[in-house]
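So, does this match?
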Amino acid sequence: MGPLPRPFASKLAPTETVSHRRSTAPSEGSDVLETGLLLALPMVGALLIINLAMGILNRAAPQLTVFSVGFPATLSVGLLLLMVLVGDLGQFLAGLLYRTLAFMEVLIEHMGRR
């Protein structure tokens, strides 16, 4: 079995320089939305698949209700995914903090010029 995928490994690496980045407020606003999606998408996608599977299972075998099977399965998969994803969260947040501080540095420089 190969290594686990790295869901948070993205363009948020702390090795990029400030000069190569966009430094406008609207682009930073779109980066906030992108970051939120990157954080939430693995969990939301997996839990959506679990809920779809529970819906199909409920249709096929009505005696297995969502309350008796679905909630424990959703909680178990959610906690398992949290354990897997927390390993990459530190690197992701470090890159995010680096980009935020770099943007604030550029913003303060621009404010000082006026």
Observations:
- Residues 30-113 form one domain.
- Helices lie at 25-60, 66-113.
